[in-house]
Please model this.
Amino acid sequence: MLSYAIRRLLIAIPTLFIVITVAFFMMRIAPGGPFDQERALPPEIEKNIKAAYDLDKPLIEQYGIYIGKLLQGDFGPSIKIRDFSVAELIMAGAPASMQLGLSAIALALVFGIGFGTYAALRQNSAVDFAVMGIAMIGIAIPNFVMAPLLSLVFGLYLAILPTAGWGDGEIQYKILPIIALALPQIAYIARLTRGSMVEVLHSNYIRTARAKGLREKLVVNRHAIKGALLPVISYLGPATAAVMTGSVVIESIFGVPGIGTYFIKAALNRDYPLVMGVVIIYAVMIIMLNFLVDMVYGLLDPKLKSP
Amino acid sequence: MMNKSEKTALLQSAGATKEIEGRSLWRDARIRLFRNKAAVGSMIILGIITLLAIIAPLLSPYAYDQIDWGYIQEGPNWENGHIFGTDGNGRDLFVRVLYGARVSLAVGLLATAVSLIIGVTYGAIAGYFGGKIDSIMMRFVDVLYSLPFMFFVIMLMVVFGRNIFLIFVALGAVEWLTMARIVRGQTLSLRRREFIEAAHATGVSNFKIIFRHVIPNVLGPVIVYMTLTIPQVILTESFLSFLGLGVQEPLTSWGVLISEGAKVIEASTWMLIYPAVFLALTLFCFNFIGDGLRDALDPKDR
Model:
């Protein structure tokens, strides 16, 4: 288990390195730069500005400088949002994004597993079909459609929640974005749980548990859930990635001051350091979560324990 | 007592009546698929949407980029022919939704084809050769898996401008990973089967074995996954278009229409509802067909 953990950690480092490298060169090779505007700057001034951001040096050298600074924890200054460093901007945006993302995933797990198990225990009943039908709708309606609809119904028609904005981070501003982010994941996890639960309930060890006279509740809670949750756990990695990309849209629809909003703006403005910073943060989070998932999986799945 | 010729005749006729038409795996699967009402219904609905998208110009007196100055952002109205209403520029929404269907479906199919070609070839090669080659190739896939891919696609679109061709390639290049994993797993188990060994023993080249013997035998799971990739690609394209990174005006896609509708949702709900319903319906149908295909092709549930 330990050597497995170390091996997985060692893969994470080159992965992160690849992310940084690809993102860096992709941004730079593209036509256009951060100082393109309607009225061209006088050449001397443009030269000075470029020199200030090291943009006048050869690409390889810029890359070296960037990696060097990054290793010291310096993401560099934002080019477009003056007087702010990328680290400051990310620190300012991260709490909102993290709250939304983590709550959405927690919500998705609780309700997804709950509905999925509920449906699986009543396989092929009307309840089962109803839950799975709704889940299918949840998958088919993308969150960028769901978000404006939620905002219309709860914000405008019922007028019980604000349609957008963040206020001072009060709870009522968070409810709709979190639900919009969580719904597709709830639906997906419910389907996943139901599928694997049905399969597990037909397996031999469950029959044994029942045969020895265990109460149904114990059979499900103690034996079946553990096996049925393995696919859900391995889906957590992709789920996090989906929630993060989803939050880019959701944040801009609801006007949440998170890092997702920065990303789109920064990419459109060619704010190189800010784009890099956001990509790196997201990559680190996804890689870390994948690592955690692998570890949990290793602990839960007896087949993976000490081969 | 029968003489010999009578006997043969009888045997022949018996043989003729008893000759049962063989049911191949595929035919079995087809029968099972057509028994699945949800899947058949979905196929019919998708067929209708596709047909509408193809004959779109014949269905309305308005062109997709034609501005009707008399009706700017007006609700659905059967009398003036704008059955889905008009958008903020006075263009007929019905025609625009169908033109959006063209783009969305085309992107879905083509990008999936790209992912299919890359994924199947990659997975089959990794699985067939096994050993070091396999572990290096699959480690590479593992690394790619943990990249925040959507961010790269977004960057790609921002950086290289909005270009439909690029959308196909970018989405296809993102979606091939799972396909490669599935095909590799299947190939690994096929690799030691007798017919592959026989081909090997008779001197068929590796390349030919992969394309003639391995790939046709992994088609089942590949088709199922392909059907589930199409809605994913359509969804991703809409997502990009929603962010303003997809196709360009005056062309349109469902994502663009939804994004336009979402902006004026309070005043003109129809501008969001119609494209959203078409998108959701399409995704819904593809998912049902994928599920149906999986049930039909999966030998476990027989």
User: Anything to note?
Assistant: Chain B has a mean pLDDT of 80.
